[in-house]
Amino acid sequence: MDALSAFFTVFANPELLALVAVGTFAGVYIGAIPGLSVTMAVSILISFTFSWDVYPAIALMIGIFMGGVYGGSRTAILLNIPGAPSAIATAMDGYPMAQRGEAGEAIGITTVMSFFGGFIGIAVLALAAPTVSDFALGFQPRDYMLLAVLGILLVGSLSGESLVKGIFSGALGILIGLVGMDPLTFTGRFTYDLPLLQSGISFIAVMIGMFGVSEALAQIHHLDTPAIKQKINRIVPSFGTIRKHLPLSLQTSTIGVIIGALPGTGGDIAALMAYDHAKRVTRKPERPFGKGAIEGLVAPETANNAAVGGAFIPMMTLGIPGDAVTAIMIGALFIHGLNPGPMLMIDQPDMFWFIVGALVVANFFMLIFGLTGIKLFTKIVEMPRAVLIPLIMLLSIVGAYAVNNSITDVYWMLAFGVLGYFMRLYGYPLGPIILGVILSRLLDDNWRRAIISEREDLGRFFWGIVTSPLSLTLFIAVILIFVSQTPLWTRIKARHAARKEKATDQ
Amino acid sequence: MKHVILGAVSALALSSAATFAQDYPTKEIQGIIQWGAGGSTDTVMRAVTPHAEEVLGGTIVMQNVTGGVGAIALNQVEAGQADGYTLLMGAENPLLYKVMGLGQKDYSDFTPVDILARGTPVLVARADAPFDDYAGMLAYIAENPGEVRFGSTGPGGLPSVVTAMINAVEGEQDVISVPYDGDGPALTALQGGAIDVMPAVLGAAIEGIRAGAMKPLLVFETEAVDALPDVPVATAANEGYNKYLPWGPFFGIFVKKGTPDDVVEKLSAAYTEAAEQPDFTELMDNRGFTLLNLTGEEAQSFLEDWQSTTAWLMQDAGQTKASPEEFGIAKPAE
């Protein structure tokens, strides 16, 4: 009974309701601007809400979190600039849709699917948090490493026409991610004794440059092409569309919850893995992936919003953050006199149900704010290029600067923008670079941890993999996915198909 | 050119105005936090500063400048004006920069405003570890050389210092040291069974201990702590620890050396009062930190003692890149 009343705290209190609404609304816009991140907004809010009660403070933060994760898709679809790393996969099919004049439809599907994914995440949090957190805690360094390898194999999905160019891009991304002071040994890697390189290359700066600036430069080629008129009659997707994608969105939401619940991985990796999963399981997309497939929108958007609920699972059950934002929220709980940890659920069950309630409310507000104001947003794409290109450049510069208040990041961003432009021109896909940067630390750190733990003995390392069901499953998945991308597999498949045909002929 | 000169003149006027402490602060103060959002330094600074703002009657805008084990933030503040408008909000790490080869500057280039609090190191083991106390752990390590996994956070971090202490007092222990990104991720790995033992700061481990998710083995203090009254203290387990304890990571606020004395005094007074506020002392208690609230001479000698103990301990453990002697860091008195 107490749980129920705690759950409905937000619904019954107009002040809290308003705070979640304000938070969600602000979150959508913070998320949409590349460089302004939810992490940043929530950490500023800690000082801002210092003198408040704990409920209003958390309500506002949850609103921003939910809205922000969704908001990243806006600029990804409209301008091909992901507002947040978790929206990178969204750009791959969202932007082609906008170029066909279907931006309204793309945003509509994204919103409804984000809502759906968010809801699954919250449901798992509410019903199965302890089970999921036990599972997540069981991940050993070697499992994180295998997960990263699995992620690296996504290069195949993100490469477009040339796998070789994709692998090159991915390797470049991993290299970029390695630059800087190695946190495990405090040794500089590729720093050439320059203090500038010690803290590494800002991943956000790379992302904004690669997607934002290179897009602006590429647009210059089409200065005289008139802007695409957007059809905005179909915003809310039909029930049929939703039902058709229900099985896929359930699968990708599950990916989102689990990846979100793992301490050390978040919505960005979840979205990319979900995109890859969609590509694998969708037999006949209406349009090919990368050209505006609806499945390419459904998968990452359900996954990254499901990861929000997932990230709260280890936070609420163990006091361990599931991602950067929940790490800050744990700090906020401390400041407000609570002690997040394994005892929180037992000592303060109200807090748990209050957070679940606030997440539900935020999810509804996200749906409302997402579906309104689309007309205004699509006008952005209809602007003449002479206005649009400087606008993208401005957004990119502001965004890159805002990450660390560092002008160096702006230079990095511009340099990667120019590099990205030439890479595009010569047909090198940009997705794998970002994938490489995201995964390089996960792969590198956990490989070293795993092998150090086994006294640097490969035999013991593989014995560990074979004897743990989780590691073995991941290892087999890595092998299967790898084999399925080699020419050998396609040959076997072709022969198999031919034999089948023969059989039906007779 | 005219603008530049004008700007320079007005900047000069501003900075000379700032030397009159009765006017200070006449503009926003910047607080540069050495560590990322959500970490313990961040939490402590964001909790204490609003109270200091009230006393000071000004605003302090806080910003996280991360990277290079905090060196990026330290160098940024050091490169600025010594006018009290940029505060460095940091932890103990800079005192080891020189010997670890991480930078040429440390807190000797700064004046301490307030050393707020000190943490207590505690040795914890995973709940199902095959030993229940400190003596049992040593015996197990002796019987199973090279099998027990200790978590660490890289050279110079708390676990490396505590492990060096154990090695110095008990003799070299044959364990595997697995590096993590911080004590949070390492304690997560401990609960998942990836490592067996972790030297951590009490505040980070206390909730896990209360829930029975990890076993406390030893508290690195000379007297029992309120949070864990039944856990033996290091000096009782082996008198050799008296040489190093009390020792612990700390949080402090600093300004660049050369900042006018009256400005430092005003800041110190503000933070001293802020750190006495009940909700801040409660936060420190809950997280297992000992409130120090040291200013002026006391703060200075605290820093010197800490640096001399730790730098020489790391030197004797062979973990340094340069001898403390090169930087004039005195050897601790025996």
UniProtKB/TrEMBL annotation, chain A:
Keywords: Membrane, Transmembrane, Transmembrane helix. The chain crosses the membrane at residues 54-72, 106-132, 144-160, 166-184, 196-214, 320-339, 351-374, 386-404, 410-440, 461-483. InterPro entries: DUF112_TM. The keyword Membrane applies. Residues 17-435 form the DUF112 domain. Pfam families: TctA (PF01970). This is Tripartite tricarboxylate transporter permease. It comes from Paracoccus albicereus.
From TrEMBL, chain B:
CDD domains: PBP2_Bug_TTT (cd07012). Residues 1-21 form the signal peptide. Keywords: Signal. It comes from the Bacteria. The keyword Signal applies. Belongs to the UPF0065 (bug) family. PANTHER family: BLR1237 PROTEIN (PTHR42928:SF5), TRICARBOXYLATE-BINDING PROTEIN (PTHR42928). This is Tripartite tricarboxylate transporter substrate binding protein.
